[in-house]
Amino acid sequence: MPRRRLIYVPFWATYVFLYTPIVVLVVMSFNSGKSPYVFQGVSLKWYGELAADATVRQGLVNTLIVAAGTTVLSTVLGTLLAVGMARHTRSRLLDALGLLPAVLPDLVLAIGLLVFYSTVRMTLGLHSVILAHTVFGMAFVAAVVRTRLTHADTSLEEASRDLGASPLTTFTRITLPTLAPGIAAGALLAFTLSIDEFVIAFFTAAPTEPTLPIVIYSMVRFGVTPEINALATILLAVSFTVVIVAQRMTRLTESLS
Amino acid sequence: MSAVSDAPAVPRTLVGIEGVSRRFGAVTALDEVSLDIRQGEFFALLGPSGCGKTTLLRILAGFESPDAGAVTLDGADLLALPAHRRPVNLMFQSYALFPHMSVARNIAYGLEREKLPRAEVRTRVAEVLATVGLTEQAARRPHQLSGGQRQRVALARAIVKRPRLLLLDEPLSALDKKVRAEMQLELKRLQHEVGITFVVVTHDQEEAMSLADRIAVMQDGRVQQVDAPVRLYERPATPFVAGFIGANNLFEGTVAGDGLSVAGLGTLPARGGFAAGAPALLGVRPESVRLGENGILTGVVADVSFYGGVSHIAVRVPGHDRPILVAAQGPSQVRAGAEVGLGWSPDDAVLIAR
């Protein structure tokens, strides 16, 4: 018996290793003291300070604008890319190239995009971050939608055409609703990836318009404060909610079809 | 003289298929297929899987194009029209019901594409729901229906468009035996009621025989024979048809004056207009073979099985590699091991060129 229990030690140790930092961070965000390492009492003080910090607020607004723009662009382009790959080409090379930005190292994309922007003399700003995030967001959406398309029954689309629907009507009335769970999951994925993306944003954002991760980075350079713990906790809550909603939605729509 | 409406109907060709070929890489799915499908008939394309019947169906529906050949509907080129503009509807083997729409919405989908007024769509959907007996299920989603009900929805969705031609891909294959028999009758009733030309694709010869007015038997991309079910059964034109349609006793030999000369068995009686000496196949149905004291052949009973209405008796004949099947009415009098004579009337045996 004791031997069997021993087997679980590495298992639990892994979880402890994974989640201790996160738990400490969340607990410390409610610390009333100024030290990020010694817990002195429960308080929401740092959340208040966070709300009052204009830089953080601006960073949050910028990030939300970028994430929203990225989500819309990635979802539309990624879905069309997936449909194109699944229905209109048999080239495995095109398939691989379409999905590549999802696995390319961020640094490669970041440097590449920066060089590209300066070559075409584009001014940096939120728009340049949106475009940059769309490059990989689109690939993620395409990957998710693509998977759903390959499992989808092509006879539904044929039935629609057979009943007199033009290719466009078939796409909007039959293909899109069948893909809806995949598209929703892809959109939420693009949103969460964009919200905390640092490397690419750091390279492609204008210094005057930093996104939230960049703001946090510049704050951390002067030491970790409980304010940052509070900010991280909020981000964590947002990510969790989005992931859970995405899973629920996928399951709900799947059970319907 | 003016045309009289009830004059003996000269079968009018609705669909003309001429020299249609289709290749997929090295595989020839259709090889110069020519067929005439007549107005108002129930036509079946019958053959084993891979014989090209489904490819032909998809060409009629507009999901495939032939490499060569022509297809006309009412004399007009059908191939020039894209799938969504053809007055042809297909009932898919998988039914392909739209999972995100109710039964009524599924059926209305095709009518809405025709831009019909809403009131008309509603009445026609209600009518067809009544015809297939699904009025109470109108608001349900496809996944809430039984297999038989789904099939009715698929059928309703196709016939509500009042197509010139309705194609059915293995319509009964997804149903269990009891529902199958019911739907078989239902299909025939509907076809009479709506007066639409039906083309059904099936690999099940019983299904084809019981449903269709005429059957085209296909093999390896070629049409073997087109005939009414009874003719097909009684007068198979090729060795493949003789073996594929129903049980048959087949003998290989050469045509002699009054039958077929078979090595080791002598001359077996049959009628047929073949020149003596030509290689041929003789087919005689189990129900045409008589058991008796003496006959054309003699053999030993190998097995007797009783099926209620009929008995099937297998008789081993020395010199013939396969047992001869005999179907007799009621319980059989013979026992396994008995020596029996086998005979048939020359009129019941058919000669087939090989």
Order of helices and strands of chain A: HHHHHHHHHHH
Largest β sheet strand count, sense and barrel closure of chain B: 6 strands, mixed
User: Helix content range of the residues of chain A, please?
Assistant: over 70%
Q: What oligomeric assembly is this protein in? A: heterodimer
The average pLDDT score of chain B comes to: 89
What is the terminal-to-terminal distance of chain B?
48 Å
Q: What integer is the average pLDDT of chain A?
A: 88
- Strand element count of chain A: 0
- The whole-angstrom Rg of chain A is 22 Å
The coarse silhouette of chain A is: globular
List keywords for this structure.
heterodimer; A: 257 residues; mainly alpha; 11 helices; 79% helix; 0% strand; globular; B: 354 residues; alpha+beta; 6-stranded mixed β-sheet; 5-stranded antiparallel β-sheet; 8 helices; elongated; disordered N terminus
What does it look like?
The complex is a heterodimer of chains A (257) and B (354). Chain A has helices spanning 2-29, 45-52, 54-88, 92-99, 106-119, 126-151, 154-162, 167-195, 199-204, 212-220, 226-256. Chain A is globular and about 70 Å long. With 257 residues, chain A is mainly α. In chain A, 79% of the residues lie in helices and 0% in strands. In chain A, helix 3 packs across helix 10. Chain A has eleven helices and no strands. In chain B, strand 12 and strand 13 form a beta hairpin. The two termini of chain B are 48 Å apart. In chain B, the strands form four sheets. A six-stranded mixed sheet of chain B has the order 6-7-8-3-9-10, with helices on both faces. A five-stranded antiparallel sheet of chain B has the order 13-12-11-14-20. Chain B has a five-stranded antiparallel sheet with strand order 15-19-16-17-18, with no helix packed on it. Chain B is α+β, with helices and mostly antiparallel strands and 354 residues long. The chains are: A mainly alpha (257), B alpha+beta (354). At the A-B interface, helix 7 and helix 8 of A face strand 6 and helix 2 of B.
